[in-house]
Amino acid sequence: MTTDSQQNPIRKFVGRLRAGSMSLISPRSSSHSSHDSGSTSGHHHGGGGGFSQRRKTSSPRNSLSSLSAAAARDAALSLSLWNAAYDGLRDGPSTAGLVLAYESIVSQELPSHMKTGGMSMNFRGRSDEDRLRLLQEVTSAGLAKRRGSRTEQDASRARATIDAAKTAIDAVVPVYTSSAVAWAGICTMTPLLLDPILGLDYMCAGISHVLGRIDFYMTLVSLLVPGSWRDDAKFRSQQDAVRDQISRQYRKILEFEMNTVCAAASAWNPAAKNVVDWNGLAGMIKTIQEADEEIVERIRANATAVTRYRLLKSYKDLEPLAASEESMTHHHMAAIATAVAA
After folding, report:
1. Each residue's pLDDT tens digit in the chain (342 positions)?
2. Cα–Cα distance between 294 and 315 in angstroms, integer?
3. How far, in Å, are 7, 8, 12, 207 from residue 3 at the CA level?
4. What is the spatial distance between Cα 37 and Cα 156, in angstroms, rounded to a whole number?
5. Hey, is 153 helix, strand or coil?
6. CA 254 to CA 89: how far, in whole Å?
7. Which of 71, 178, 182, 227 is least enclosed by beta carbons within 10 angstroms?
8. How many angstroms from the chain centroid is the CA of residue 154?
9. Which residues pair with 303 in a beta bridge?
């Protein structure tokens, strides 16, 4: 009986089906899983022919393992890109002061036992791992503040903007450890400090644009994953260019965020006001918007339907900010702008 079962592949197939070891994933879902995991399955060149290969890819355990490996690969790639962007700003002669001021501001969210330099604490000399750990603490503390009580002053477009941004950040944190490097500063913002910044038209537009695309920015790494492009040859030939394009954009986004955090903190931290690139912010925002459109053009021209949908579904301005902006009176905007300039 055993010998007959081993020699008869059909009987062996039925036996496995009865034992519940066959995958219940539909062919469409299985193709998506293998597609998303890139060339991972292509590394299995063991014997057994086509039937053996199909049996391996259809196993729920193998499918989950491939998806887990793909997620870990994407997360590591994302962290590498955001770290490089952060390091570029930290080491840049024109932005080093901005980074130091930014770090001194966000580090105020750290638990007391993790603060080593008081108001002047920064992350200089820290390894990437230590910096990530500190920024994760900052991010967690900032996200937790949504559960706190609200005052009448919080019932504003600034509160709606911060809540919407934190909701988006909360969604990507479990997927990308790099979220802390990318968005810790936004998590430290308060409505009281952000509200005057929103009174500046160009800052309002920039914040709406960048914070509305948090998910889009975090999933951009999918463009660097095998199988995400319709043409594999084109994918291979353009990978270096795409990586550089994303890296440059991450650096601009971080620079804008650091400027925004320092501008908002300038009300209580005079040193922060001096590092803000007030004259260059409008141009910086325009550069980000134009670069985003270039990335979108590349996505539409090259990405598969699945990758295209995954990226472009979240390509939009921050809706609470866009909606509330229309209800702002001219008097209110003028008053805020005057307060910032003072």
Report:
1. 444 444 454 444 444 444 444 433 333 333 333 344 344 444 444 444 443 444 444 566 666 676 688 889 999 999 999 999 999 999 999 999 999 999 999 999 998 888 776 556 788 889 999 999 999 999 999 999 865 445 544 458 899 999 999 999 999 999 999 999 999 999 999 999 999 999 999 999 999 999 999 999 999 999 999 999 999 999 999 999 999 999 999 999 999 999 999 999 998 888 899 999 999 999 999 999 999 999 999 999 999 999 999 999 999 999 865 544 444 444 344 444 444 444
2. 13
3. 6, 9, 11, 69
4. 43
5. helix
6. 8
7. 71
8. 26
9. 229
Instruction: Please provide the size of the chain in residues.
Output: 342
Q: For residues 60 and 27, is the Cβ–Cβ distance under 8 A?
A: no
For residues 175 and 38, give the distance between their C-alpha atoms in angstroms, rounded to a whole number.
18
Q: How far is CA 112 from CA 109, 134, 137, 181, in A?
A: 9, 12, 11, 21
Token pair for 60? 């729920």
**The two structure tokens encoding residue 25:** 């994933």
The Cα-based distances of 65 to 37, 73, 250, 303 in angstroms read 10, 12, 30, 25
**Which DSSP letter does residue 255 get?**
H
Q: Model's pTM, two decimal places? A: 0.74
What's the first-to-final CA gap in the chain, in angstroms? 91
